[in-house]
Design a protein that fits this description.
This protein is about 50% helix and about 10% strand. The relative contact order is 0.15. It is built from four helices and two strands. The protein is globular, with a radius of gyration of 14 Å. Helix 2 links the parallel strand 1 and strand 2. The longest helix has 18 residues.
Length: about 100
C-alpha cells in the first residue's frame, strides 16, 4: 500500500511510485480506488493528465465485500486488500468518461 498527501508534492510522489511499478513489471498499472465524495477528484484529474487507467469501486459494493470476511478488521491496509480482491474477483471495468 502506498499513501500520499492530496497536494502537488504527494501526487508527484504517487506518480514516481506508479512509474517505478511500471518499470519493474513492464506493464502500465491500473489504479483501483473507492469513490470518496469529492476527495478523489484531484487524483482522478492527475491520472487523466498522465493517461493512467483507473477503476472506481462503489463504496456500497466494497462495504458488502468487507462484510463477507470473517474478521472485522478496519485498517487502510485491510481496505486496500479488499479493493484488490474485488478487482480480481469481479469483472470491473475501467472508468469511462462521457463525452
Amino acid at each position: 500500500m502506498f499513501q500520499f498527501e492530496h497536494n502537488l508534492e504527494g501526487l508527484a510522489s504517487f506518480l514516481n511510485f506508479v512509474q517505478e511499478l511500471e518499470c519493474i513489471t513492464g506493464l502500465r498499472p491500473a489504479v483501483v480506488l473507492e469513490a470518496t465524495g469529492h476527495y478523489h477528484n484531484p487524483v482522478i484529474q492527475f491520472l487523466d493528465e498522465h493517461q493512467y487507467l483507473y477503476i472506481f469501486i462503489n463504496p456500497l459494493i466494497s462495504h458488502q465485500a468487507k462484510k463477507t470476511s470473517l474478521r472485522k478488521v478496519k485498517t487502510d491496509i485491510a481496505d486496500a486488500y479488499h479493493l484488490g480482491e474485488l478487482l480480481y474477483k469481479e469483472e470491473l471495468e475501467p472508468y469511462k468518461k462521457r463525452g
